[in-house]
Amino acid sequence: MTKIKMNIANLNCFYAKKQVLENISLHINANQILSIIGPSNSGKTTFLRTLNRMSDFDADYWRKGKVFLDEKDIFSMNMEKLRSRVGMLFAMPMPLPLSIFENVAYAPRRLNLLKGKPKKYIDEIVETSLRDASLWDEVKDRLDESAMKMSGGQQQRLCIARILAIDPEVILFDEPCSGLDPISTAKVEETMMALKKRYTIVLVTNNVKQASRVGDVTAFFLMGKLIEIDDTAKLFVAPKQKETNDYITGRFG
Amino acid sequence: MKKTKDKIIEKIIFICGILSIIFVALIFGFLFKEGIEFFRDFGLKNFLGSAVWRPTSVPPQFGILSLIAGSVLVTVGACIIAVPLGIAAALYISELAPKAIRDILKSLVELMAAVPSVVIGFVGMVIVAPYVRIILNLPTGLTAFTGSLVLAFMAMPTIITISEDAIRSVPKQYKDGALALGATNWQAIRRVVLMAAMPGIIAAIMLGIGRVIGETMAVMMVTGNAAHIPHSIFEPVRTMTATIAAEMGETVRESLHYRSLFAIGLILFLITFIVNFVADLFSGRSKNQ
Questions:
Q1: Judgement on whether residues B113 and B171 belong to the same structural domain of the protein
Q2: Distance CA B5, CA B28 (A)
Q3: Are A90 and B187 in contact (CB < 8 Å)?
Q4: Closest CB to A80 among B99, B176, B182
Q5: Residue B239, CA atoms < 13 Å, CB-side half-sphere
Q6: B183 — contact with chain A (CB < 8 Å)?
Q7: Residue A188 belongs to a domain with what CATH number?
């Protein structure tokens, strides 16, 4: 029996009067990858941004329903605390305009994770985070260089390392490979597979193949509705809904 | 037929384009010509090395140091007031204010830039100066400090509008990235948004300084115009611009005094040129990133 990490109950999200998510209920298992597929405008990203309350900053955004993290309501939690437990990676790799080292050290410093620790401790965090993001070997000799000089794929893995540095429980990936070439994509996917041993992962992707490669469970969103959610193996071989079948076989979307 | 029309229009646009260059070159050339003649007659060392400005005594003395000190003091004072206020206002407008307030504030700031400097000087003279005198218990309210206050008010619109543009052109993803790592809104703004917008903000400050150094009317009305090296910011000073404006009407054309004012103009031109150049360097750097 797998443990349930996050539970979403009757979630409805709106931008002003427009409803972008309708009555979503699902749960996310611990130490698994849930991939969410669906065409553009199906509400995938809104769903993801609701899970760590990034959407709270969006203008005109409001919602009904509940989301639980380890059975606690996230909407009554401290927002910053929640985000240090539920990290997020964006579609465009966006390192901060700092050095590679400082990018990874940024969050631990901000969140006061270093209090009472020896001075060397930050070096350790940076190294393990970069290792876990399978980036260490490529950058260990140039940690002081600007992160803006790295390639797109490296930048994206740096962003992963940045999240790992605060050791969250859940990591949300918002189309992490949409701007990357196939080789970089493979590396990011590899990293994700390795990370699920320790973290719970939610992956939003436009790439159906990617969902079938890395997801343990796959959910299909269409026009703000959850059409189907099942084990990836089952969903891709024998989808129950016609829309799902049409989408994964490439008939639309 | 069409081709000739195109050619003519191209030529006209070309002339318009290089007109500004010609104007600047002409202004500089004219300043330089008169200034050089002054330096030849009076000596560069006596000009830059003395603080005594007595153009009508016998023999006349043209020491520019006290005027430079006046300009620098007023400018630095204005910056100390205007820079933090301007950046804070820009941050509020671009990051924190609700949309309705933001629109009102933006148009008000633009309106602030449209107030004629003589009106600001007038208000400074009849309202600000007496209050400065009473509150700080000074013999006169016409001081460098009053000038700084008034000039800060004039530099703020420049600093606010340009910094606000710089802050708003920082990709939203930078801030999102920091927020998604658990940073608070303020931490994200201070460490990420401000840092990324810094080149633009510095350019804004430089342009604000350029405006302050060159300002004449308001400064002449509120700083007291005493040409001596001030010992504190609460004393009257005289700036380079005010000297030119006040004395130009009383000089004999082609006289030494007349040329000395051109020499001041030359120094002023060099200073603003350097300030603008530095501003360009910074704004160019932000675009290349």
A1: yes
A2: 35
A3: no
A4: B182
A5: 29
A6: yes
A7: 3.40.50.300
The answer to whether B150 touches B222, Cβ cutoff 8 Å, is yes
Mutation for testing the B interface, residue in A82, A110, A172 having most B CBs under 10 Å: A110
The answer to whether position B107 is within a domain reads yes
Which single residue is written with the structure tokens 């009053």?
B146
- pLDDT (tens digit per residue) in A84-131: 899 898 888 878 878 899 889 888 887 777 777 778 888 888 999 999
pTM strictly above 0.95? no
| Rounded Cα–Cα distance for residues B73 and B253 (Å) | 31
Residue B20: domain span: 2-48
Whether residue A72 lies within 8 A of chain B, CB to CB, comes out as no
Domain count for chain B, please give it.
2
| CA distances from residue A80 to A50, A178, A202 in whole angstroms, order as listed | 14, 27, 19
- Mean pLDDT over all residues of chain A? 88
Is residue A253, in this structure, part of any structural domain at all? no
Nearest by CB: A80 against B174, B177, B184 = B184
Residue B93's identity, in one-letter code, is I
- Tell which of B173, B174, B181, B187 to mutate to test the A interface (max A CBs under 10 Å): B181
What digits encode the pLDDT tens for the residues A129-143?
Answer: 999 888 898 888 989
User: How many domains is chain A built from?
Assistant: 1
The verdict on B121 and B41 lying in the same domain is no
Altogether, the residues listed in chain B come to a count of: 289
State the amino acid at position B133 in one-letter form.
Answer: R
Task: Say if B122 is an interface residue toward chain A (CB within 8 Å).
Answer: no
